[in-house]
Amino acid sequence: MTLKSLSDSVFYIPSPSNIGVVKCNGNKVALIDSGLDASTGKNLLKLLRKYELFPVAVINTHFHSDHCGGNRFLKEKADVKIYASKVASVVIEHPFINSYSLFCGVLPVDTLRNKFVMAEPAKVDIVIDEEGEIAIADKRFNVIPLPGHAPGHVGVAVDGVLFCGDAFLSERVLSKVKIPFNVHIGEQKRTLEKLLNLDFKVFLPSHGGPVENIAEIVKINKKAILKVENAVIESLEKEEKTTETIMSDVCAALNLTIKDSYHYFLIRAAIHAYLSYLSSLGEIYFKVSNNSLIWALNKR
N- to C-terminal Cα distance for the chain? Predict the structure, then answer.
């Protein structure tokens, strides 16, 4: 782990899910997200001690495990306070909800009961509004709603830097995942538009490096979403299909190979988000036929 500077008082630790480090008063720091697990938390504390920095808080951008998995370890070993939005707080404290949500709301298969889906539960000390200002050790942070990727997803702004969580992905990450995971496509599109109107020196995504030209990366993210949308519609142009068949068609169109069962469930959820969105726009509709749910294009 290394500590990289974004401004005089704002730093980040590059990792699979970046962790923000903000100097408050004295040697106290607030963290933006906590990484995947206790191992991440342990390495994080070791790095901070090297610089004689002491964490007092974690602000979670959202409840996905790679962003809050270190919470419990940091609470136990460093007595940090956890800050999260109302929705995120529920899942951070009861992470099985995330696992159930990927398996139709019922007890999930073992594949969905691991640290990548279910973080160690941790008590949230301060439930924050999705928009507003909070103060930690004399440092003021602005919380900005950035929904779409997950319910209750927020960005955290301080000293000209916006920690964006998963509100956008780097071009490298997008080229790898092909189908970005978002739960609400309409909200995600509005969030991307919102980012264009925010005035910050640096935008830091959780997956990728610092961005100064937000317009270019927003354009790339919008293009990635549209590509999936079009693939869903093209799948239905000739005939009605089940969700499974649409998913297979979209993966083929985007040259994406599902690696394992865990990856399958993530992609299935992501495809459902597009089906829901296109249905809400009246572009497609669904019906039950031969004991299966069938999707079809609305002919105009």
Answer: 55
Residue 151 has pLDDT above 80, yes or no: yes
Residue 187 forms part of a structural domain: no
CB contact set of 110 (below 8 Å; sequence gap of 6+) = none
Average pLDDT, integer, range 7-36:
97
pLDDT in tens, 214-223: 999 999 999 9
**pLDDT tops 70 at residue 300:** no
Residues 106-142 have pLDDT tens digits of: 999 999 999 999 999 999 999 999 999 999 999 999 9
Which residue's structure tokens are 């995942």? 177
**Does the model's pTM come out above 0.90?**
yes
pLDDT at 9 over 70: yes
- For residues 137 and 275, membership in a common domain is answered with no
Whether 290 and 144 map to the same domain: the answer is no
How far apart CA 83 and CA 61 sit, in angstroms, is 9
Note whether 120 and 46 are same-domain residues.
yes
Residue 12 CA to residue 27 CA, distance in Å, equals 16
Residues 120, 233, single domain; the answer is: no
For residues 181 and 299, which has the higher predicted lDDT (pLDDT)?
181
Share of the chain above pLDDT 90, in %: 99
- Domain of 51 in residue numbering reads as 4-167
